[in-house]
Write a structure and sequence with these properties.
mainly alpha; 77% helix; single chain
């Protein structure tokens, strides 16, 4: 190894450590503890109610409409029931919804009305502590949805591989990506009318990300657009896990959400610092 290489590598690690040290006091635990107190005292009904939406979709579409549709091509081209086709997609959607609503509406209220983050950042906590704490709470909500829905589809016999157990940690990865990005975007909003843009973005993404029908029904140009959407990557990854079929694209889907998470966390930290630590 050359002398230059020996110098450059520590410099890179030093830059990252310096960024973390300047944005964190290592006290994200305080944000998480507060979040659990709020859930225990107020929000547990709201959180639990969100679990039933994908279950109702599965029963109505998968077992209702599915009786008319029959089998459809699954990962690798093997035929699977329509219920088994949409169940992993609904799990990915559930992880997205749980994380995005917790990291947008919840964060918006704390940011613009309760002025909670101003108080937090007036203490020794840094913007990275706040971002990590809030994103963790969004992940907790996504984890509850993933755990419950995975149990449902397992009981119904819609998961045909032991790899389906990996859908739970993958749901957390999906939730992490959406929570990090959602919190960053919310930091730019000032009114409730602007918050409605989130629903305007989520509903079409749910309908057209191959959740309820294969992407091949679209023209090729539309397919490329859909494949750029984050939910499509989550849906495809979940489907592959549900039947234990893996391709090179599996790593592309995982890499997509890892990159999305890192960018979102960094972006959120920068925004909080710009807003409150000027």
């Amino acid at each position: 190894m050359s002398t230059e290489q020996q110098v450059v590598r520590p410099a890179g690690r030093g830059a990252l450590a310096s960024w973390v040290a300047s944005n964190s006091s290592g006290n994200a635990r305080a944000v998480i503890e507060r979040g659990f107190r709020v859930i225990r005292n107020q929000n547990w009904i709201v959180i639990v109610s969100g679990f039933f939406e994908p279950v109702f979709y599965l029963l109505a579409m998968g077992f209702g409409l599915g009786q008319l549709i029959g089998d459809v091509p699954g990962p690798g081209g093997q035929p699977i029931s329509y219920a088994a086709f949409i169940a992993p997609a609904l799990l990915a959607t559930s992880a997205m919804n749980g994380a995005i609503y917790d990291s947008t509406w919840n964060v918006f209220f704390k940011l613009k009305f309760a002025k909670l983050y101003q108080g937090m950042l007036a203490t020794s906590m840094g913007p990275l502590d706040v971002a990590v704490g809030e994103i963790f709470m969004a992940l907790f909500r996504g984890f509850l949805y993933a755990l419950g829905f995975t149990a449902v589809i397992t009981i119904l016999g819609l998961a045909t591989s032991w790899w389906a157990l990996a859908m739970i940690p993958v749901a957390l990865l999906i939730a992490l990506g959406f929570a990090a990005l959602g919190m960053a975007v919310t930091s730019y909003f000032d009114t409730f009318q602007q918050m409605d843009w989130i629903n305007i973005a989520l509903l079409p993404m749910f309908m057209f990300s191959a959740t309820l029908f294969p992407i091949t029904v679209f023209p090729e140009a539309i397919q490329w657009f859909v494949m750029a959407l984050p939910l499509w990557h989550g849906v495809e990854l979940m489907r592959q896990l549900s039947v234990g079929h893996f391709e090179a694209s599996t790593w592309v889907h995982i890499g997509y959400f890892v990159a999305m998470s890192l960018v979102g966390i960094g972006f959120t930290t920068r925004r909080l610092r710009a807003l409150f630590l000027r």
